[in-house]
């Protein structure tokens, strides 16, 4: 009987597409995960996580063997749908379980200050036949102080065999979506995640090798 209860408790997580575990997500409901901008959790949390704007890890738990992933951020205490700063353009992640994007940072030229509130948005593609993307958000307070090595490593782990690959051409728009298509208020401006710009920043069409883990070379990819 106990084993059956354990299995039932795990069912919601087993059906999830991905989970944002650090910085902690506002919440997760798989049935609402296609709802732009934050998977049905659109109320800003008061207990924000301090996160290093100079570069920090974003930890995910992946439940698909192959997923397109992108990371954006919105500045301010209540950004609404304005996730228009690209921190990681769309790329391909392969492998189940823990996946850490290492040393994610705001693009050069974005005007930020110590203690500024912001919200990180992680977007992935859905299953075949799904419309739009899948969304999770984390409310953070930006700091210009880097994490210590021990703190960084405590929030950055990768499962065996996890790999990432660069996308090019039309594929970098894999997570393009519009709010009206994913449950947001009608009349909102569309969001083209991979081509969004902020304060005159050039569109990010290319990317370096993605960091997997805190240091070193993992799966043939150089950690940033």
From TrEMBL:
InterPro entries: BIM1-like (IPR046936), BIM1-like_dom (IPR046530). Residues 1-16 form the signal peptide. GO terms for cellular component: plasma membrane; side of membrane. Keywords: Cell membrane, Glycoprotein, GPI-anchor, Lipoprotein, Membrane, Signal. Residues 15-161 form the Copper acquisition factor BIM1-like domain. It comes from the Eukaryota. It is a lipid-anchor; GPI-anchor. The keyword Oxidoreductase does not apply. It is found in: Cell membrane. This is Copper acquisition factor BIM1-like domain-containing protein.
């Amino acid at each position: 009987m106990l084993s059956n209860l354990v299995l039932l408790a795990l069912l919601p997580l087993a059906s999830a597409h991905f989970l944002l575990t650090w910085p902690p997500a506002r919440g997760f409901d798989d049935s609402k995960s296609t709802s732009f901008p934050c998977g049905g959790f659109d109320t800003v949390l008061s207990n924000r996580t301090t996160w290093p704007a100079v570069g920090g890890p974003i930890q995910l738990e992946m439940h698909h063997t192959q997923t397109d992933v992108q990371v954006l951020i919105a500045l301010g205490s209540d950004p609404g749908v304005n996730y228009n700063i690209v921190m990681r353009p769309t790329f391909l992640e392969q492998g189940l379980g823990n996946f850490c994007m290492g040393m994610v940072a705001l693009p050069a030229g974005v005007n930020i200050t110590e203690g500024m509130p912001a919200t990180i948005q992680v977007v992935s593609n859905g299953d075949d036949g799904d419309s739009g993307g899948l969304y999770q958000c984390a409310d953070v307070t930006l700091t210009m102080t880097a994490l210590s090595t021990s703190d960084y490593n405590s929030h950055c782990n990768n499962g065996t065999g996890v790999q990432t690959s660069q996308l090019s051409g039309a594929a970098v728009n894999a997570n393009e979506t519009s709010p009206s298509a994913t449950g947001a208020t009608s009349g909102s401006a569309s969001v083209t995640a991979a081509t969004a710009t902020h304060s005159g920043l050039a569109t990010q069409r290319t990317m370096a090798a993605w960091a997997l883990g805190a240091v070193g070379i993992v799966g043939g990819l150089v950690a940033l």
